[in-house]
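request received
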Amino acid sequence: MRVLVVEDEPRLAANIVASLREVGFAVDHASDGLEAWQFAEQGIFDLIVLDLMLPGRDGKSVLRLLRTKGLHTPVLILTAQEGKTSIVELLNCGADDYLAKPFDLGELIARSKALIRRSKGTSSPLLRVDNLEIDTVRQTVTWSGQIIELSPIEYRILEYLAHRPRAVVSKKELLEHLYDYDWEHHSNVIEAHISNLRRKLTQLATEPVIETLRHRGYRLRVESAQ
Amino acid sequence: MTSSASIARRLTLSVLVLELLAAVALIATVANHERHIQFEAFDANLRATANALLGSVQESETKDGSIQLDRQNLVLPMRAIYSVTNSEGLVLGAQGTPPELPHASGTVTKTKMAGHAYRFLVLTGERSIDPGTPHAVYHHIRVVYGLPEGRVWHTVFEGIRFFAISTLVLLGITALLLTWLIRRFLLPIGELAHEAERIDSENWTFRAPQSSKHFVELRPLASSIEKTVLRLQRSFEQQRRFTSDAAHELKTDLAIIKSSLQLLTMRRRTVEEYECGLSLGLNDIGRLEKTVQEMLTLARLEQAPKELKTCDIAEVLQEVIVQSHSFAEMKKVRVAHRGFEEHIGVPMGKEDALLLCSNVLINALQHSPSAGVVDITAAREAETIFLRVRDHGSGIIEEDRPFLFDAFYRGDASRSRKSGGTGLGLSICKAICNRSGGIITIANHPEGGAVVEIRLPIFSPNPART
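response:
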């Protein structure tokens, strides 16, 4: 999952970015409102963490613009001024949640995950596809109760696919949502990780769980019972 | 004084009391006048009747050479008392018994008769028989005629009663009219008070009602309330903004510290990572400490000074230039100064003066381009010292100018935090200047760069060293 952190205070931004990366998000950072909009309008983010007081263009106007342009990326507002802009007003502007500074990093991460979950159409932290069970909080994967050891990037690919089982996810989409701009990567890294992931899963399953559709992308296969 | 007094009631009452006093005076005057007229008429009446009595003696037939009173043509009131006597004291005619009265003719005498006040007129005349003949006889006649005064007083009292009743009726009508009029006139005051009552810390709008602007007497009050409310609103807004900005600043600093430490505890880390994290955390705490320190300084400066302190600003400037030398070298900026060899006393403590000068100088150094120059000049004009600090940087943005001395104001919102400033430096400078009766301004130099000008009153040519 890819998160955009918009925060002008460099030390705070660094801490938020670092903590989100620690839990496996791809994170980009914008330090002013104009940069934030340039990032956000690409529509490649699964969540935007938005500070309100920004140089260039303030957080609320970025949020308004985002919603006016029809972008539905969940937005988590960070604010230190509870009085000035009321929470009600922010929520009515299209914000999904808010945190008051000084906030708890653990809470920020939990809320971020919950917002992403809900935007993908599920509220349970457990993703189940057939015998496959993904715990998005502990970041563990089991097949019929048996734990599968995955590398962080393999886990992220699997989690991304599991949010939309049976849907075809292009390689471009995977690259956009799993890597931030700071990440050195080539387009064929996805193929390498997919093949590793498929190998680990096929050891337990009878048939390949991840299908490759030539020139189209990948799909998490669901048993015929579905 | 009673707890609640009403202007309307007092005004009405005062006017009514004055009216009443005037009415009493008027009635007294009128009654006196009436009495006078009535008595004149009464006396004329006495005289006429007495003359008639005298006339009837003069006109009557004589009988054996003696005179008599012929009352046939006379109609006299029942309560009249009279006597007509000749010179020998023989009574020619009488009704009742008149008292002993002086002999002078034409005198009116008041006297009491059987409990009633009477007025008597004495009239003397003579009856001549066969005048112009040798056997002419002259008889002296004395007429005393009196009537009770009661009738006159009755008329006078009737007049007074009429006036008193009319006055009371008039007073009643005026009271009603006054109450209505005064209420009407006081209405604008009521409206003004009602409007003023609506002002509180949440609602600072005060628009003087049209009615209060209409009256010359109320106009100054209304406009002074308007001005006061506006001033209060501004200072309240300023306070609120300061509190909110200060809270924002402190919360941001706290958020940094909290997140730095929480980041460290997210998983086990190497000793180096912990060390690095803790040193960053300490830096963050240092920043918070500086912000709090400056806020406290500002709070101290905004209170009136307890005692008058003075210092030598020339000496302070030299000291500040020496102190900032290493920073200037690091920025590769040269500090040029001229015009302050002599001692110049200013009414501020040395610590404050150091803070003021170093804040301004460091600010100029920060905004100077590398290999630039910061010019410091001091000029003396009468009892004022002008200090100008000019940098050759990009200058200030004109729109920011009115707010540059506001606490936590950031023209470029991100700049001040990134450059390590707390956003209080210039506010502190302004507070120091204000406290000493000085002025600080900032403007762009026509040839580029910003100029900070500090104007301070000179305290004495040889200040006491602190």
